[in-house]
Amino acid sequence: xxxxxxxxxxxxxxxxxxxxxxxxxxxxxxxxxxxxxxxxxxxxxxxxxxxxxxxxxxxxxxxxxxxxxxxxxxxxxxxxxxxxxxxxxxxxxxxxxxxxxxxxxxxxxxxxxxxxxxxxxxxxxxxxxxxxxxxxxxxxxxxxxxxxxxxxxxxxxxxxxxxxxxxxxxxxxxxxxxxxxxxxxxxxxxxxxxxxxxxxxxxxxxxxxxx
Length: 211
Fold this sequence. Notes:
The protein has 211 residues and is an alpha/beta fold. The protein has four helices and six strands, in the order αββαβαβββα.
């Protein structure tokens, strides 16, 4: 007797619900791009703040220097350079101030200290370049000249790089010069004269390779 072939029963559909993907929306390439753009934006903001801070610092420094220059004593003259002359027989220099405050000069210096006769400008300019202050006085009677020298010597006593010398043809009694600076006085003014010396004495003005 032949056996009956059993027919397999069809599988019943699963009643187990499908589990939604645990991967949050937006975690693909588009989300990574958005995060990268966010980082770049934050970096640009930080860089902008840094550049702004640097610019503000530079502006503040420039302002400080400008104000400082305006508050320094004396009149300022443009530099005429540091070139050395070979001798006093060279063509006379046309300085932009009288007495001079910069420009071509002799290789040698005038001795520091007090002089009772005028010194050539071309030597004194080198003293200025070396951080000196040159003080000119108007000659008078022997008594007046001695009094002027004594007063100037006392004011300049705390400073090393000072020349005190007479100058002919000055309209005022005293003239203080430093590199690119000049201040005139009609009488002994200790406070103003000391301020000039304190501001400029000892500042070297050599240019590397020149003078």
